[in-house]
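Morning!

This is the sequence you dropped in the shared folder:
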Amino acid sequence: MPNHDRRPHPPKKTTAKPELTVEKTGQNKAAGLPNNSPSSEDMAYQKNILITAKGGSISFGGKIFEYVIRFVFSILVARTIGSEQYGLYTLALTIVPILSMLALLGLQTGVVAFLASAIQEKDNQRIWQIIQISAGIPAILSFIFGIGLYLLAGNIAVQGFHDTRLIPLLQIVSLSIPLEALGFIAYQIIISYKAPQFSVLANNIVLPLAKLILTLGFLAVGLGVTGIILAHVVATLIGLVLIIYYVHSLFPLNRPFSPSKNLASQLLRYSLPVHLGWVFNTIRGTLETLVLGFVGLISGVGIFSVASRLSTLGTMIFLSVGNISTPIIAEFHNRGEAEKLKRFYQTTTKWILMINLPLFLTFVFFSRPLLSIFGGDFTDGNTALIILSIGNLAYTGTGIGANILDMTNHTKFNSINSVILIFVTIASDLLLIPRWGVLGAAAAASLSTVIVNLVCMIEVYVLLKIQPYGREIFKPLLAFGITAILFFLINPFLALPSLLHLLIGGVILWSIYTLILTRLGFSEEDLLILNKLSARLKAMSPFRWHAVQ
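The structure's back. Tokens below.
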């Protein structure tokens, strides 16, 4: 994931009262900013900050939309089929990302790294060769894996999960393995072109909407959990067709087939060391679900899945900023701009934390009301939700170090981290889940996440001498601490029904945090983004005044 350098000075004061304030005393000096007009390097860095903010905000907005649709989808499905059937649905889908990731061979990382320079140099022949290799190899492998899952569905369902009801579900979901693998590569190509709006439309808007609509239709005709799985496959196909269309609009794909063996060898040499890390991370993300299924806690799978889905809300801004920043990190590294990389690392970490800190408090104070939305049998996961939120805060709060390692030719460290992650996860899962069930799964997931992300942060510091925290990080931390204390004192007086407590209490909590953060002031990087956003909103407003000549 990404980071970097300088920002411009705030605009000169006018007679109008400024809407945002910046801490003035020693700020430019502390930030290492010159007192004169921005240099060309400053302007270039400012451009990348704006690209990251714009792309990250587009991606984040898309992820918020997707999260809302998936939230509605999960409520609908959970309330319709119950926690046990929801567990079967979750187990069937858990197999797909593992096999899709195996088929990619790490090329989802290689395609971004190689395309960054080819796009910059406008080398269309090389771009086409990279796309052919990066899409062709996963297409073949994922097709083979899909056939394998279809043929072995009976053995996996009976011998692995001891439940024959999984057999038809696994057979249907096997069709989505090549679709998801190719969709991931297409997404990475779009990110390489710094055009996240296309992936947002395909993956974050059209796909979840199609899945929701199809699910409603299949449930209406009585297909139950089988219809929900079928809706997933059809929606994935729709999303893939659309995202390939957007790739074609960026780089026309109607070209003669002309792969390069030499380039394929280079891509694989770069990508394969990362492959193990991607696979381990994917397995790690599904391991608790699999172990719960192996020990026969099908209902526990459903409860854990809902709690885990809620807790991942905090990762959306992290993934949004990280994804759009990956090619920017590659550019900074290729140009040897280490100082810009450091500043970018610290700026993005602060942005991510500013959103995730109040989200963490929301999960802590409102875990039971949130889970009750899915049905009464899901509220047993309230403590698990809090524990999972701790792990996600560690994941997002340590910055985009893994992306930096990938894009600065230190991919082997991410592979090592993934090995550490998988072994810690396996050990903690086997130790905690049989004894404590869903609670043990949440504790195991958070423990492994905290350990590996701390290791990654240390590696980035040792290798590149940069760390994710600047002086500005203390502002959101201070706002977080004050908000936590104040709301802890206020919360006992909010004796309201569950949903009202969630709505009113949530508004109070976020208002306190926002007010304190605003009073502490914004950095120049923040003002650069906020002023751009403010100008955009004013331009869109139908109520703006026009001067009368």
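Headline: Residues 273 and 470 are 32 Å apart (CA to CA).

More detail when I'm at my desk.
O.
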